[in-house]
Amino acid sequence: MPGTTASSIAENLARVRERIERAAQRTGRRADEITLVAVSKTFSADAIRAAYDAGLRHFGENRVQEMQAKRPQLAGLDATWHFIGHLQSNKVRPAVELFDRVDAVDSIPIARKLDAAATEHGKRIPVLIEVHLGSEASKSGVEPSSLPALAGAINLLAGLHLRGLMAVPPYSDDPERVRPYFRQLGELRGALSQRLGRPLPTLSMGMSHDFEVAIEEGATEIRVGTALFGARPRKAG
Asked: Could you give the domains of the chain?
């Protein structure tokens, strides 16, 4: 598929890194402070290998079953695998086996199931809380008012390590319209860090079309798919 050849991925990565560098410079930050998570969902294991060969080390997937199919083909890659979707209860155990981090915890029951599975596997999994910003019913995430309770519960679970917050704000063609949501997430992280009495270093926000604004508002992790891999494959039917 056009846009997913090894050479095109390498060229796209160079352009994305230039954008990250410029956005970081505008706010006096360093580009190496920002983790680039390649959102590889729906793309093939070959595309992921090409991205790895181009220098990417963090990859995000949102379906456990898809990752189960890909992972054997990716053996030997020294990569960090992020689960970035809404995690269903019946997928918790395989998610713990397949992924290094869970970036979208949104309820106490899921947190407890993750903790039990992580403990069973002798792991301590870094997690982010997904916060629901905006009024979109289709989006998952905890409401800001319920964030302290969820964070407090996770903080007590030995199998999980709360690292910060993530959000997927409402889409807009104009990234400036999304800026207030990014700013709000940063403020929520600051207040939560103070409440817990410890740092929350990760602020995961920003995608292909708006990550520069997210970086300007303090993002430490951005999730980029189409800007790296090209248009996603269309589903059959």
From this structure: 6-225 (3.20.20.10)
